[in-house]
Amino acid sequence: MSLTELQLEAASDQAEAIEQRLFELGAASVEFGDAGDEPLFEPPPGAHPLWTAVRLKALFTDDLRAEIAAAALARYALPGTAIPVSPIVDQDWIRAGLAGLTRIHCGGDLWIVPSWETPPKVDRGVFVHLDPGLAFGTGSHPTTAMCLAALAAAPPRGQHVLDYGCGSGILAIAALRLGAAYALGVDIDHQAVLATLENAARNDIEPGSLDALLSETEPAAAEFDLVVANILAGPLVALAPTLARSARPGGRLLLAGLLDWQAGEVMAAYRNDFDIDIGAERDGWVLLDGHRR
């Protein structure tokens, strides 16, 4: 299928109206981005702030519809800006986005190996074969890398593991490959649940040793020896009661997905139930490591 992209720069107070009009004019998708160089930090729950100047990118499956949309929306464009319309070369977008990924040594015996690569020849190796599909989690981002390194340094042998915000299932599967007895992956995204189960099958995970559920299902209380959540600071704060209930007394907690300046707020949300501190730092991101009292 051939695609045509339209780009339009507009004021933020017009963005939602333009988005609606683009869909009315036949757009298949609309993406918002920063038209200037304005930082936009993580908003509080329920807030959806935009940049002062917004760049909208709309994809059309018909180039004539894209040209008509550009003409219809010309009055919304910021002064001095054009509305370019250009064809997009057809390709496998998922594979294109994953093309630069390669095998990763996480520490100890643990390696992440993309499904299209051959495992390295090492004397001892624990390999997780991964195809992230549409879900987050390849092992290359600092937050995921720190979680994997923590698992490799202290393998959860015989433990029950909760991976909250499982994405591709990379952390749950790595824990099982390192000797965990059982893992539960939880995510808000149905695609992540599917990716986790598919990657489990790719790694020959035994039936019954891994489950993946949508987050509307509450994890069992005091069930897990290790709870790991690699998401964002805001959700981590909101999830503190849920993750605390899920951890057994003495159980370990690994939290990632937060920047160094967010660590204090997240640790404060967990200190009633956990002894917790910064366990690792990479490129401005931190890993929090704690134990349930």
Name its key features:
9 helices; seven-stranded mixed beta sheet; 27% helix; four-stranded antiparallel beta sheet; 2 domains; alpha/beta; Alpha-Beta Plaits; single chain; Rossmann fold; 293 residues
Care to describe what's here?
The protein has 293 residues and is α/β, with parallel strands linked by helices. It contains nine helices and 14 strands. The strands form three sheets. Strands 10-9-8-11-12-14-13 form a seven-stranded mixed β-sheet, with helices on both faces. Strands 2-3-1-4 form a four-stranded antiparallel β-sheet, with helices on one face. Strands 5-6-7 form a three-stranded mixed β-sheet. Helix 5 links the parallel strand 8 and strand 9. The termini are far apart.
Strand order of the largest sheet: 10-9-8-11-12-14-13
The main sheet comes to: 7 strands, mixed
From the coordinates shown, what is the CATH architecture of the largest domain?
3-Layer(aba) Sandwich
Number of domains as seen in the coordinates: 2
**What low-confidence regions span 5 or more consecutive residues with pLDDT below 50?**
40-49
**What's the CATH topology name of the largest domain?**
Rossmann fold
What topology does this entry show?
Elements: E1 3-11, H1 15-24, E2 29-34, E3 53-60, H2 63-72, E4 85-88, H3 93-98, E5 104-107, E6 110-114, E7 126-130, H4 142-153, E8 160-164, H5 170-177, E9 182-187, H6 190-202, E10 210-214, E11 224-230, H7 233-238, H8 240-246, E12 247-259, H9 263-270, E13 274-282, E14 285-292
Parallel strand pairs: 6-7, 8-9, 8-11, 9-10, 11-12
Antiparallel strand pairs: 1-3, 1-4, 2-3, 5-6, 12-14, 13-14
